[in-house]
């Protein structure tokens, strides 16, 4: 029998509400089911929300600071963020006891502003750990590790939903423990200590062990399995992160079965760092193969109720770590360098039940093929659509289209019933009352005539009535 979990897993709002969908559709019959089925998911985020899964992305702090297009895409397409580097030890505690959280805070703040969850990465790793840590004596190293975990877990308690507590602790050969400074100085017990510390510091966060090349069943994943078993027996582990830095055409054939055996331990599984590299330059056939590989991974996660989600390791191909480490390889992600969508984007969206309405739209650029003339006398036009309704809530998408050059916009509407916004992204203002007045976020206000941008929000509707689609007025700022 599985041991009783000693901690209350943080159940996110999204998870709770999506649970209601199933019950409500079953109880209320065809009306609601039809309504749910007709909701069209046109973004990865919408599709993931409807499945109650995370679609995450590794966020690069510099791009988040410097690029409005990057910010808009991250806010629109993803419901979960991981700091690609900003939460690692070298970024957060570069010298003993001197913590710097500017970058990590910016990413967590962005997630909160945009209604996104955060998967934290990572407390204990043999890379990107400063030399002052590596040079400590065994007892000082243990003290530093406990202090580091306590400091980060306490700082982000309630704001980071899950943590990669230890990263890459197993070696690439024979399933042995990685011969890192951690192992050499502290022995295997450092792993248990790290999890005990994290559990005590933030009892509600989900705790993961994370590694690469464990997607199929092999000596390395067998070792992770036995470590996981030991941690589960102590009530210290909630999930296993399968990084999934894959090579074109090489999604392991037994990946789903391998993940399932971890689920059978009572664990969540998560694809934590997905990218699928190929030899560059890519031709159309390779991009199609990549799309099919991505779809396979998306389907595996969809098939497993306990797969908490997929995080892709970067936004655009040019942002990826791959070419720097594997010369001649690259193009491993879902977006091109101009933010246009690759075939792999479409295949993931389709696998998770969504439909691409305009595959070539780039945030902040003109929609190709738009033929509808702008209404006269109005500087902008705004519409709302229900993305995924459930009994007592819904996720909406909003679109603002500029009919003239805009430096900002304000939209307004009044809810006819009990609908009230609970959280919103890419829009700010007076949002929570019966009358909503919202303006552009810092990054999506400047639109040339003909361009569109999007925003989104979740509502509650306690009375269980059908989610309404009010008429929206839009005025230039
Ligand atoms: O993508 C990260 C890259 O920017 C860093 O330079 C690199 C340093 O080691 O780490 C990369 O992310 C790694 C992640 O933290 C752990 N799994 C492997 C990832 C790719 O190397």
Automatic annotation (TrEMBL):
<keyword id="KW-0326">Glycosidase</keyword>
<dbReference type="InterPro" id="IPR001000">
    <property type="entry name" value="GH10_dom"/>
</dbReference>
<keyword id="KW-0732">Signal</keyword>
<keyword id="KW-0119">Carbohydrate metabolism</keyword>
<dbReference type="InterPro" id="IPR017853">
    <property type="entry name" value="GH"/>
</dbReference>
<feature type="compositionally biased region" description="Low complexity">
    <location>
        <begin position="357"/>
        <end position="370"/>
    </location>
</feature>
<keyword id="KW-0624">Polysaccharide degradation</keyword>
<feature type="domain" description="GH10">
    <location>
        <begin position="41"/>
        <end position="351"/>
    </location>
</feature>
<dbReference type="GO" id="GO:0030247">
    <property type="term" value="F:polysaccharide binding"/>
</dbReference>
<dbReference type="InterPro" id="IPR008965">
    <property type="entry name" value="CBM2/CBM3_carb-bd_dom_sf"/>
</dbReference>
<dbReference type="Pfam" id="PF00331">
    <property type="entry name" value="Glyco_hydro_10"/>
</dbReference>
<feature type="region of interest" description="Disordered">
    <location>
        <begin position="357"/>
        <end position="378"/>
    </location>
</feature>
<dbReference type="InterPro" id="IPR044846">
    <property type="entry name" value="GH10"/>
</dbReference>
<keyword id="KW-0858">Xylan degradation</keyword>
<dbReference type="Pfam" id="PF00553">
    <property type="entry name" value="CBM_2"/>
</dbReference>
<comment type="similarity">
    <text>Belongs to the glycosyl hydrolase 10 (cellulase F) family.</text>
</comment>
<dbReference type="GO" id="GO:0031176">
    <property type="term" value="F:endo-1,4-beta-xylanase activity"/>
</dbReference>
<dbReference type="InterPro" id="IPR031158">
    <property type="entry name" value="GH10_AS"/>
</dbReference>
<feature type="domain" description="CBM2">
    <location>
        <begin position="373"/>
        <end position="477"/>
    </location>
</feature>
<dbReference type="GO" id="GO:0045493">
    <property type="term" value="P:xylan catabolic process"/>
</dbReference>
<feature type="active site" description="Nucleophile">
    <location>
        <position position="273"/>
    </location>
</feature>
<dbReference type="InterPro" id="IPR001919">
    <property type="entry name" value="CBD2"/>
</dbReference>
<protein>
    <recommendedName>
        <fullName>Beta-xylanase</fullName>
        <ecNumber>3.2.1.8</ecNumber>
    </recommendedName>
</protein>
<keyword id="KW-0378">Hydrolase</keyword>
<dbReference type="InterPro" id="IPR012291">
    <property type="entry name" value="CBM2_carb-bd_dom_sf"/>
</dbReference>
<dbReference type="InterPro" id="IPR006311">
    <property type="entry name" value="TAT_signal"/>
</dbReference>
